[in-house]
Amino acid sequence: IPVLDWASVLPGVMQPTIEYVMAAEDLRIPGEGILIGDKIYSGVTLTLDNCLLPLERLQQSPSAEHGLSADTEEQLRMRGCELIQAAGILLRLPQVAMATGQILFQRFYYCKSFVRHCAEMVAMACVHLASKIEEEPRRVRDVLNVFYHLKHSKGKRAQVPMPLDASYISAKAQVIKTERRVLKELGFCVHVKHPHKIIVMYLQVLECEKNTKLVQTAWNYMNDSLRTDVFLRFSAETVACACIYLSARTLQIPLPDQPPWFLLFGASEEDLREICGRILRLYSLPNVSLPSMLKEVDQCHLALDARIAKAKLAGGGLLAVGTPTLDVPSSFSPASKAGETDAHHSPRGNTLCNKDREREKERERRRERERERGRGRRDEYSRRR
């Protein structure tokens, strides 16, 4: 790439003259990354293909590693997705946004455990995040009110409003914090390809788009499949083929089989049968009460904490997340001199720890004063009204 010689343009200004600059493409090493100086920097590739989870990760989820049974985890995933769907209807979100929230919920719990993260809080965070992804944003306050209504107004006609107290402020901050955690664990890869339009397009190719009952049945099966993990295992095109396959079998509508129609769209019959089995399993699951499932989650949480505490007492050096810690040598810092004591055991180290505790206490006192002022303003506003 030729570069302009500024010395010839401005004779009175001395500027360094560069004849050519190497293009960025010349620095690339195929399959390895970019060469800068003597170091190779690899890139990050984000596609819809690497959103699909490998089989070994699906077989052993983080919740199973923490002792939660597979049936309870499946029920919790289904209940969480149903909660997202119900909240999206009350928030008047489009179906695409509700589908995005359910898929994000399913993805998150293959990164983290139900034992460590509250399913209801993660569901709220996924609804709020999905509304922004699909350009239908909703306020955190609206999301909190809808979930509060779903939780406390079951079987009651009178709607109970959510009180605006300290618990509301804490819950709002917790939803925002959980949303950030979801983004962090997913690596900010939140793009989802939905099979809504693909189903209609495939039925047009098969010349069945005028059969409204077939279209509606396939659409219903697709919405139900969001409560399973099929979107984490198969592409959107394969899921669309499976929904058409299942709805045609249910309604006894013949489709081309010489050769099979789904080969045209790159799907295999084995994958279609697997997806159909996952969907049909939803309708045969027992109705387990939510308190019993939460009780099992609490028991796993207590057992996990007991194992971590036992490992710490035994000198295993495990953190709360199960990561082994390394013993820091006394001469860890390069600037430390021979004969110096460790800062953690010296009076200076204790002084620093005490100062940190004092600062934290002062911050807590400030936050409490701010809360008191906020409550005073609300009371004053109520009296004036």
From TrEMBL:
<feature type="domain" description="Cyclin C-terminal">
    <location>
        <begin position="193"/>
        <end position="308"/>
    </location>
</feature>
<dbReference type="InterPro" id="IPR036915">
    <property type="entry name" value="Cyclin-like_sf"/>
</dbReference>
<comment type="similarity">
    <text>Belongs to the cyclin family.</text>
</comment>
<keyword id="KW-0195">Cyclin</keyword>
<feature type="compositionally biased region" description="Basic and acidic residues">
    <location>
        <begin position="354"/>
        <end position="385"/>
    </location>
</feature>
<dbReference type="Pfam" id="PF02984">
    <property type="entry name" value="Cyclin_C"/>
</dbReference>
<dbReference type="InterPro" id="IPR004367">
    <property type="entry name" value="Cyclin_C-dom"/>
</dbReference>
<dbReference type="GO" id="GO:0006357">
    <property type="term" value="P:regulation of transcription by RNA polymerase II"/>
</dbReference>
<feature type="domain" description="Cyclin-like">
    <location>
        <begin position="197"/>
        <end position="281"/>
    </location>
</feature>
<dbReference type="Pfam" id="PF00134">
    <property type="entry name" value="Cyclin_N"/>
</dbReference>
<dbReference type="InterPro" id="IPR006671">
    <property type="entry name" value="Cyclin_N"/>
</dbReference>
<dbReference type="InterPro" id="IPR013763">
    <property type="entry name" value="Cyclin-like_dom"/>
</dbReference>
<feature type="region of interest" description="Disordered">
    <location>
        <begin position="331"/>
        <end position="385"/>
    </location>
</feature>
<dbReference type="InterPro" id="IPR043198">
    <property type="entry name" value="Cyclin/Ssn8"/>
</dbReference>
<dbReference type="GO" id="GO:0016538">
    <property type="term" value="F:cyclin-dependent protein serine/threonine kinase regulator activity"/>
</dbReference>
<feature type="domain" description="Cyclin-like">
    <location>
        <begin position="82"/>
        <end position="184"/>
    </location>
</feature>
<protein>
    <recommendedName>
        <fullName>Cyclin-L1</fullName>
    </recommendedName>
</protein>
